[in-house]
Each structure stands twice: as structure tokens, then as C-alpha cells.
Amino acid sequence: MSRPSRPTSSAQAEGVRLQKVLARAGVASRRAAEELIAAGRVAVDGEIVREMGRRIDPDTAVVHVDGSRIQLRDDQVYLALNKPVGMLSTMSDDKGRPCVGDLVMQRTELLNQAGRLFHVGRLDQDTEGLLLLTNDGELGHRLMHPSYEVEKTYVAEVLGQVPRDVGRRLREGIELEDGPVRVHSFRLVDSLPGRSMVELVIHEGRKHVVRRLLDEVGHPVQRLVRTAIGEVRLGDQRPGKIRPLNQHEVGSLYKAVGL
């Protein structure tokens, strides 16, 4: 069933009732949305709204529920991709190598909705895991900008048994050729004969930074997977699969970059 067209002219100027907008966005049923409004849990353009008759323009209004921004526009798309190893983080490749764009082109319904998608940051060819795709330029720009320090979580299989002091060294900072880098957190996940599994959380987005860090402390990476960006987690999503982010995940990304 197709969506009804948005109101035009004078009807458009009047806007849409807030509880209807929240229900349409999947936040709650209209009745439950009214309860959220009455409880003072909904803000429009920075102001708490309690009246039921409030009308807004979904294309321009900024709405938060319990402090998390709600995505209202039908034409904005937010996706999580589990990038397989060996695939380029590009939307096309002039040499015909496998790339993220190949997977997106298979999802014509996403392209019809989004128009044009781009990847937020990148993973190198030998790294797999979570890659975000969107057509929201402002959010994408902020997620990639180092000043917002969005956390990225990686799990790495490395050579050798990792001694206890490695975590401390990485948290204190390692001097690389392009400057010092510190990890936010580090833990040993598992220890295998001749190999170890470690998890680290980092704010940096420099090229090959995780591989360079672990190589610098004497534990070259054999396999690297990005498992989370902020509160968006890869979970059990299979390689090559794309899924839409839910409202909570989109809201958490907005919050992480101050939108």
C-alpha cells in the first residue's frame, strides 16, 4: 500500500499533528504517543511539548523523545552493512573489483528510496565488519569528523600471547609515524595456541590505525572485524547483508555527534 501524499498549500502550512508524526515514525501507537507528549517526554525544536493539538512540519522539525532524536523524513535512509573481507569500501571501482556499491545495487528498493547512498568512513580491503550507509550528509560528515570522537569497536585475531601490560600501553598511547594514538579500552577476549583474540575501542579514524597499533606492540593482526560504531552493533548480521537501522540506533548516532 502506497503512502498518502503529503499535504500541500495551506494544509501543508498547518503541519501534521505531533502524535500522528510519532506514530508514523514507528515510535509508538498514536494513543501511546499522546501519553508520551502528556508526560513531557517529547521535545520539538528544543522545547518540551505537552499540548495534543501541536502541529509540526516533519520535513523541518527536530523532534526528540526521551532525549533521543527521532528520524521523521521518509527520504532519509540509514543502513548497516557487514562488509565482507576482500571487498572495497567504495560505491564503484573502475578496475571491476568487488565493492560495497555492488551490494547496494542489488537492493533497488533502497536506491529508489534514497536516490544516492554513500558509505560513512571506510574499512580497508582486508578488514571486515560494520559499515554505515546513508544519504544524510550532515550526520555522515559528523560521524567521520575526528572532533566528535565517535567510538568504534574492533575485534582482532593477533599473533602471539598478549601480555597484561599491552592494554596499559595502548591506553596510555603509542607513538606512530603520524602522531600518538590511544585506545579508549582494551581487553583480551580469548587466548589460543600462538594466537590471541582482543577487543579494542578507539576514537581514531586514521588509515590502518588498528593494524599499525597492534603491530607496534608486537602482535600483528591476522584478522580484523569492526563490530560496532557507537551504539550500533554488528551482532549476528551475516557478511554481505544490509539492514536498516532502527529508531534507537539512528537516535544514538545523532546524539553521539550533537544533532
TrEMBL record:
<dbReference type="InterPro" id="IPR036986">
    <property type="entry name" value="S4_RNA-bd_sf"/>
</dbReference>
<dbReference type="InterPro" id="IPR018496">
    <property type="entry name" value="PsdUridine_synth_RsuA/RluB_CS"/>
</dbReference>
<dbReference type="Pfam" id="PF01479">
    <property type="entry name" value="S4"/>
</dbReference>
<dbReference type="InterPro" id="IPR002942">
    <property type="entry name" value="S4_RNA-bd"/>
</dbReference>
<keyword id="KW-0413">Isomerase</keyword>
<dbReference type="Pfam" id="PF00849">
    <property type="entry name" value="PseudoU_synth_2"/>
</dbReference>
<feature type="domain" description="RNA-binding S4">
    <location>
        <begin position="16"/>
        <end position="77"/>
    </location>
</feature>
<dbReference type="InterPro" id="IPR006145">
    <property type="entry name" value="PsdUridine_synth_RsuA/RluA"/>
</dbReference>
<dbReference type="InterPro" id="IPR020103">
    <property type="entry name" value="PsdUridine_synth_cat_dom_sf"/>
</dbReference>
<comment type="similarity">
    <text>Belongs to the pseudouridine synthase RsuA family.</text>
</comment>
<dbReference type="GO" id="GO:0016853">
    <property type="term" value="F:isomerase activity"/>
</dbReference>
<dbReference type="InterPro" id="IPR000748">
    <property type="entry name" value="PsdUridine_synth_RsuA/RluB/E/F"/>
</dbReference>
<keyword id="KW-0694">RNA-binding</keyword>
<protein>
    <recommendedName>
        <fullName>Pseudouridine synthase</fullName>
        <ecNumber>5.4.99.-</ecNumber>
    </recommendedName>
</protein>
<dbReference type="InterPro" id="IPR050343">
    <property type="entry name" value="RsuA_PseudoU_synthase"/>
</dbReference>
